[in-house]
Each structure stands twice: as structure tokens, then as C-alpha cells.
Amino acid sequence: MEYPPLSPPCPWLLIAEEKEQKSHTRVFYNLFDDEFYNFKLPELAGKKCIGTSFGWLLSVGTNFQMSLFHPLSKHQLSLPPHPYVWEVTHEYDHDCIIMVIHTNYKTLAFTRPGYKAWIDIKCDSRNFYDITIYKDKFYAVNNHGDVFFCHIEDDIAFAERIAIYKETEDYIHRYLVESSGDLLLVSRIQGGTHYQDNEFINDESEDEDESEDENPYVTLGFTVLKLECSTELKNKNEYEWVNVDCLGDQALFVGGNSSVSLSASSFNGCKANCIYFTDDNFDFLLATLNGGGYDMGVFNMEDGKIKQHYLGESLSYFAPPVWYSKHTHMHYVC
């Protein structure tokens, strides 16, 4: 088969590779034509790929060495090593900023090409879930759903809270996604055996005999909000959250380090008003029977139903499947 260039117009799944395999070949899956594509990428052998941004892959080696790798040009950009990186995103520019969520406290930091270390971003919050670029600026969201605007000037940086999420919800993962010019807060509701006190637990599971160890967590649904403001950013009190019940022609692709919104009508088989998601519950990967990668699917905003988008098995404790796309904003800022 003559493979297309590794610059897909729609997100592909980068299939999991176990840590011990150290293969020179990586497998990508196109949901919409149901095809697998193998690419020789020895630069990624034995490395954990934790996200993509503008066609770049963020990889972490066993020695915690981090790098950005572009599969088409084969160009690599070395980053300062770090043992605890959760999310990353970057600007599409040679003089870029790479921004991460790091440490056990999930705080913010950034670096630039050629820097030897990460620089902490001052903030009165921690436990951040996602970071993204919106209108050429960096934004972050914490576990409560509060959104922060990140000011970076030379080597001085701080994060300013600009929107407060007033609802109280547990067992939620948050994503920030730019869609049709708006900044969306996408909240992922999870249940499962690790959430015994969660009111969202699905008591109507069709598989009552399923082992508890097999599903310590499972996605039950999503909610979507839009950040609205009537004035410029400096008037921070003008921001508010507005419920979004319909995405129109847009389809959202969310997952650790790789989230994007695309026009569904541009791709045969892509479903509008749906949220495609990967398994990114990194906190509980070791509690699963065979690793992460089973909690993936498509959530329909209209009827609330979830269906699988990948019928194969791609499990890994090391690096579960992630989206690969030239559109996605990784959670590092380069």
C-alpha cells in the first residue's frame, strides 16, 4: 500500500507501544477510512509519546529526556529533562515557548529552545488539567474549572485567574479547546470502581459480570461551556461561562496533550456535534488490568450516547493511544 504523508488532515490515533518493545515502527490509525499506517520512526524507539502539536510529537525517554520531533522533516528539538510532565503545548514559531503542567502538584512552567531548565510560572493555584493557545495567548484550566491567562515576558511569568467555574463537580477531567473562534471548557465525567462515591456512577452497566479490575474508571459523558466576554481581556470581570448544547458542524477531539476542533463535514465519516476522546486518566493507569487505552470512544452531544471509535485493542501502562494531527495544540508551548 502506498501510504499518505504523515501529515493527516484529520486526527489519527497513534497506537500504543509498550515500553519494552522499542520498535522503530509506529502505527497510526485513521478512524474515518478504517486504515492502519506503519511509519519507520527510529527516533521514537523506546520513547513515550505524550502528545502532538502542529505535527510535532512530544516524546519522553527513559532518562526523562524530552524532545519535540517532526516526523516529516525528521527535525528534533531537545528540551530540558523532567520526570513529571502531565501536559504540554507550544507556539508554531522558531522562537517559541514550550509550556507544561509538571510536578506532582501539577503546576505550570515554560521553557524556550536552547534553555537548560524549566521556569516556573507564578500562580495562586495548582492541580492544572490542561493548557492551550487561544488567539495567540496561553490559557490554563485547573481541576475546579477556573481558567487562567498566562503572562510571559522574557523569563518572568505569572498566571492570572480570569474566569471562575461556580459549579461543584467531582471526578471530572477538563480540556480547553478553541472552536469556531470560541474558547470552550470541555468537562469529562467519569465513574467506575475507583469512584465508588461518585453520583455519576453508571448503575445500568450492560456487563454486570465484568471484573472490577478491568474498569477502574470509565467515561460517562461530557459537558461543554463557552467563555464569553463583552470587552477586552484587561476587564477580567466581564468573563462568564455559557452552556453549549450543540456544536453544530464541529467535532471535538480531546485527550491528554492533544485537543482540537474541526469541521466534521470536511471529512467523510466524521460525525458532527460529537466529542471523540482517548484514554488519558494517567493517575489510574497502574490500577488497570492491562494498562490504559480502553476508555476511548465518541460522545454524541444530541443523545448523550457513547460508542467506540476504535474496535481493536491498544493498551499500555507506558503510553496509551494519543491523537496525532497537524492541527492539535499540545500541552507544551514551543
From TrEMBL:
A matching Pfam family: Beta-prop_KIB1-4
Protein name: KIB1-4 beta-propeller domain-containing protein
Residues covered by the KIB1-4 beta-propeller domain: 28-300
Source organism (scientific name): Lithocarpus litseifolius
Signal peptide: none
